[in-house]
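Section: Multi-chain targets

For targets with more than one molecule, the full set of components is provided together so that the structure can be written out for the assembly as a whole rather than chain by chain. Components appear in the order listed by the source. The example entry contains two components.
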Amino acid sequence: MKVSYRWVRDVAPGIGLPQAQAMERLALRGAPVEEVVDLAEGLRDVVIGRVLEARPHPNADRLTLCRVMGPEGEVPVVCGAPVVVEGACYPFAPVGAVLPGGFRIGKRKIRGEVSRGMLCSERELELGDDHAGIMLLDGPYEPGAPFAQAVGLDDVRLDVEVTPNRGDLLSHVGIARELHPDGQAGISLPEFPDGTPAVAANFARGEVEAGSAGVRIRIEDPDLCSRYLGAVIRGVEVGPSPRWLADRLRAAGARPVNNVVDATNYVMLELGQPLHAFDLARLADATIVVGRARPGESLVTLDGETRAVTREMLMIRDAEVPVAVAGVMGGRDSEVSAGSADILLECALFEPRQVRATRRALGMSTDASYRFERGVDPATMETALTRAAALIVAVAGGSVEGELIDVHPRPWEAPVVSLRPSRVGHLLGVEFTPEEIAGLLAPLGYTVTKRGADALEVVVPGHRGQDTLREVDLIEEVARTHGFDAFPEVMSPARPGTVPDHPLFQLEDTLRALLAADGISEAQTPALGPAAHGDVPLLNPMSRDEGYLRRDRLPGLLAHVERNMARGVRDVRLFEIGTAFAASSVPGEAPAESSRVAVVLTGRRTPPHWSGPGEPFDVYDMARVLELVAEVAYPGGRVVPAADDTAEALCVGGRGYVVVSGSGEVVGWGGEVEPGAMDLPRWAGVVVGGEVLLPDMPGPRPEVTARDLPDQPAVQRDLALLVGVDMAVGKVVEVARKGAGKLLEAVEVFDVYEGDDLPPATRSVALRLRFRARGRTLTDKEVDKACRRVLRKVKEETGVETRS
Amino acid sequence: MIEDLRRLEADARAAIRRASDTDELERVRVRYLGRREGRVSALLRQLGRLSREERPAAGAEANRVKTALVQAHEDRSRELAAATAHDPDRLDLTLPARGKWRGTVHPVSRVVDDIWQIFRSLGFVRARGPEVDTEWYNFVALNTPLDHPAADEQDTLYLAPGLLLRSHTSPVQIRTMEKYPPPIRIIAPGMVYRRDTYDATHTPAFAQIEGLVVDEGVTFVDFKATLAEFARRFWGPGTRVRFRPSFFPFTEPSAEVDVKRVIVREDGSEEETGWIEIMGAGMVDPAVLDNVGYDSERYTGWAFGMGPARVALLRHGVRDLRLFYENDMRFLGQFT
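Its structure, encoded as tokens over all components, is:
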């Protein structure tokens, strides 16, 4: 809500707060100011100038040579305006002044005559569109005085953030109510500058239909329109608004249109009540019917759009067709325009949900619909109608004919809410007496009618009639008026809750710390991706690239490898913990969600160092990371090479690892990423990646039972084996392990060597076997025997021989 | 001859042991083991002059001596090399340290964790809920009718009619209260989604942290105190906290919480920031408690929601939220 602070003070003359304090107070009452615009900002250099003498320029027909009295005495000014009145005052920009558009006034010579300043038009000062002439100022002004202050343009526009429950703040009166020390009681609507014509509040009333001055109004749908007021004004002269009115609207951020429309907007901005003026001559049979649209109807609205309207929408109709979308926008055909002489002024109350549904269906929002949706004050409708009628008469002439019309099928009754002071203390933690409560509510317009033993009866004012209908709503008003800051801050002892800490968070934390400690950085990528990356589409995506929920997290992470590499970053180590989504087999049912950890590594295994070139990451690094994750997430789980047909498609050559949980389920995978799956620069090396599903509800990690340290030395034996490239080393190790017997403590592959000195298609694999017996020292004989058994078994089962 | 060999061996071993640097050791090696001038080689050349009977024993002994001396030389050489390596004069400590990659936890995760650690110390635990949820949990149960303007504030991404990506973490309030009886004392970090396009302050997916306390006797005073305590622990003891009235359909009274931090500069001088909005909060609306079957006359509570990405933005002086989601190694690497 944009308000002119000057206007706010005009409707509640007791507000003495400087602007900064007013902003502070508004913030602490729930209406923070988002932006402040100093309306005099661009006019700072402009002063009042009085034209002492004006005579034709000797060398130009259309120019006038003036002597202008300004801040530094008399100066010569050459002016291009058609008319310059001697003795009159104008806005004057002396040499050195900068105009709102940034134009700097300099000393100039125009057709041989010196000009030391400029008399300004409205447009040059960005006060209006009038460029035809300079801006003549009526009234007594002091030459040289600052222009903005002298004409009342030294104002600020406050853009107040209004929450959806505070429809009452969508007006200058509403803002003033929060600022005035007496609140509601401090409101006093000002007279119009040229006087306020009297409009008698005599109404021709009816429950569903009423009429006066040849106009009839009928409500067909009282549930959607509970009241409709009308005023017939004849003999208006539509034209531009007087300066004060146009200035007011502009100060509040509205655009002046014409005097009649501006008058309705003025009253809406002042009181919050949307109003509409129809050209009476364009209403068939001078009739208004408030009812739903008929099938197939359409309407051209004020913005020039043709709108197909439906049975669900409430219309303002004349005897034949819709002439306005109720509470949203008027129709172009019945718009007040230059030729209009007789008008019907509408002030109505439309059901908020109906207005909201209609304007959403039409894909539009207007000042009127915005207010109706948030609730307008049913108690100020008569005031709004008479004030708007008076303003129209004041600025456009004409007169109100006959009685005002009031069709009122559902009379509004002020809600009465019961409020227990004990409940106020129960919720707020501070006790308030009934008197204190009444005193806090009164400035907001609430009246306490009855003070029972336990509860107060509180009558809710019209401007809060939408929002405060429950006891707790009133308690909020008590807290708000008392001031949130006035409540003490005392922590009370808390009982532990019944909810256990979710173990998945603990697992995620552990993994995050573990992977970061391993040199991998945590990324965050959105769960939304293109169709290729997901099975669950969105109904209303923002773009095709974000139209699906991801089924896996790794592809999103790979995209960030591409992004890093596109920026020349070669060493990329990223992990992410996020949710993946699997479509439900039942349409319309929520997808299954799972938490995933995805990892990607590429570039050098260690940072560059003078001691040697870093080795690039390879698939064995991925195996280690998967083991790290599996160890934490799946006690008893393991990482094994995938059988050829089960590796993920992203793995190069279809070869990779799978992570198998303790219960035998495949819960993750990893490997070297197929280069074709990514868009990488030519210099990019191997990229390895993997992803592990995390358990929904991880169990506690098994406690470690410590083993005693060995009391006997171990005996080590190294075996060099010649393993064919077709034989898996893992298989050889397995056979060796079994063959070595009980005394074997560990077996380690400590070297794999390929070279020209070996038989073709073989590699030398060195195994280190460690033997140990409990409670006694091993003899060489025993160990030699075990090694011979290993070599025999290996040869028998794998055909692998010792390297000679 | 054998005598000579043994004497030579003893001399050579002593010389090898005496050698105190590699240069001297090399001279010793040449003197004894050098191919031409070496004294061992010289003795070996004399083997031919021996009688047939003497020759095998002397030859074997000569070979043994040679092998032993080569070994002794190698050992001493290794000793000297090791000594050199430990020689403080030979170390250039200006050379860069050996590198190891440092991984980093995402700055937004770090904020979440810092917040969690504080609430944990205040007796809270963590709860979670699904990211895809229903209109009931996301709006209706939270006292937000779909035909109310409040539902506009969050432009929601839908999967199907009634099924949506949660637009805030508040549905976890409902899900937790449905499952557990009071007292409740939880925070709920998680991802939320809105129909926002990427700009300096918006992303369609972002982290949020919900908090919820419900018990008998929980008041506005307690609410203010606990959140102010959190703010002072998070932003420092001098932090001022301000509660401004606001509106959320599921809390009443509702508040925006602002903090004013004291920034201590390097020279020790202090500066106060302006008011920074950090969270929306309020007393749980009784309608929400009624919706989960709690007795709203008996139980009261408070709740909050905050955006850790915004907090991270302020904490690290990041100008554009998008930097957090580009995952550039050079950006992430700064948060060690």
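Chain A touches chain B through 96 residues (CB under 8 Å).
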